[in-house]
Amino acid sequence: MDNKITQSANVVTPFPRVIGSAACIANAEQEGQGDGVAYYSTNGKAPLATLEKAVVKGLAEDKGLYMPERINPLPKEFFDEMSQMTFQEVAYRVADRFFGEDIPAEDLKRIVYDTLSFDCPLVKVEENIYSLELFHGPTLAFKDVGARFMARMLQILLPASPRNGGGAELVGNQSPSPLRERDLGRGSSVNVLVATSGDTGSAVANGFLGVEGIHVYVLYPKGKVSPIQECQFTTLGQNITAIEVDGVFDDCQALVKSAFMDAELNAHMQLTSANSINVARFLPQSFYYFWAVAQFMKVESLKFKVESYASGESETGRNQGAAQKLSTLNFELSTPLVCCVPSGNFGNICSALFGKRMGLPISRFIAANNANDVFYEYLQTGEYHPRPSVQTLANAMDVGAPSNFARIYDLYGRSHEAISKDISGATYTDEQIAETIRQCLKDTGYLLDPHGACGYRALKENLRPGEVGFFLETAHPAKFKDTVERITGQPVAIPDKLAAFMKGQKQSVSMTKNFADFKAYLLAQ
Question: Structure pTM?
Fold first, then answer.
């Protein structure tokens, strides 16, 4: 089946090498990268970038998303030992494979340990079905992991960091690393632009709150996030500005991307993004997939039964069509493990797919969608047609043009067949989501949020005999208190963390979806 991609600027380049190559190293050296992993654009028309540039710039010059040239596999010893490790220990070992060539070990360890001050426990819901609860962080949503990690990494890369003559106070007391000024230029502060359909805004705002040298602008669609979600980023003040856009999430995301591409605006202020388009936001989300496997090895006594090293060749455009070795480590558990991910902008499942290239022993993935089923349609037809999003009960997944599709498409060498081999899909209406929340509570006593409901139902309907599976419970049900109470007819207790946000006073800036208006506002800052 031929792949048909109708999204603009989606000329996709080769998928990352799991091991290095002479050509890769030569390209990096030609671009002045030196040591460390180089990052290329999914659109293939921008220069290679260092980690610093990829994180601080967020988006490549050709509007593509940054991808690492190499994905370093984890050794067998890691998988032999991971069931005895803590969450922080597992995450540090994974982070080291992504960022260890660019960030000093002491700094990276501090970033990881300070980020993960909370657990992501695996909870049994029913036979063979588990929930990976990702709502135990400060804002009770999975995005706390990526946002907190990025905030801490960005601080050691800032031109304003103490080692580079600035005065930013480092979260967790990390020592800053030297900045490559040839990539980033000079500047006294960084302005973070983030579009949110719900939980991203609160996680990023709270992750960066009070950090000197960084100002965060949260763009959110008016009337399309839950009241509790809205409280979490509109009541903070300090270095956080909430911008209420008269439109949908895709309009917010378009404003952010247009800002990055505007020369006048970028000359006026240093911009970066904290959405999952940023490599420092989405890659750390792979941590909890490895932690889930470690917990399964404990609670289910799953053991590795096969170790194999498979090598294959793939033609890549980056090196004038020269064949590159795509090498992967394949570990299998004695019981096949399936993961179902509620998916909107696809950064979450994308991080898991990177993990799989590192050896993550998950047999297959299920991407659970609400009515915004662009990716599900692609799986069925091989054709990708982004379109305006529609509003649903699972509002954080209301994305009609998922940015990270470009990364998944690139990661799998633009092959619909290869993507479909690892990922299947499911899509649910609001009525089905509500029915699932009620039925799961009745049958198991486990209360789902609307996004977790999509994941639970897709896993339950698609789990095969002999498999064990887990779904991601991405946010606490109390963040959707009114919706969940209306569906279940039962009160939902509000955790103290959420109650504290609700006491604050809303502060927001009204904005049209016209980029000229947004640009004028930023130029006035």
Answer: 0.83
* Span 112-133, pLDDT tens digits: 999 999 999 999 999 999 999 9
Instruction: State whether the Cα torsion 273-279-280-286 is positive or negative.
Output: positive
DSSP per residue, 492-508: -PPPHHHHHHHTSPP-E
What the block records as the tokens of 327 is: 């090498």
Give, to the nearest 10 degrees, the angle between helix 227-234 and helix 199-208: 20
Question: Could you tell me the two tokens for 450?
Answer: 């609307």
Do residues 390 and 363 lie in contact, with contact meaning Cβ atoms separated by under 8 Å?
A: no
- Residue 294's φ and ψ, nearest 5 degrees, are -60, -40
Q: Which positions ≥6 away from 193 have C-beta within 8 Å?
A: 217, 219, 256, 259, 260, 271, 272, 273, 274
Q: Give the pLDDT confidence of 169-197 residue by residue, as tens digits.
A: 334 333 333 333 334 343 458 899 999 87
Q: Which candidate, 166, 229, 240, places its Cα nearest to that of 196?
A: 229
Give the residue among 248, 257, 441, 327 at the shortest CA–CA distance from 15. Answer: 327
**Helices 249-261 & 515-523 angle (0-180, nearest 10):** 60
Strands (DSSP E) found in 153-302: 190-195, 214-221, 240-245, 271-273
d(CA 62, CA 8): 12
Any idea what DSSP says for residue 398? Answer: -
SS3 178: coil
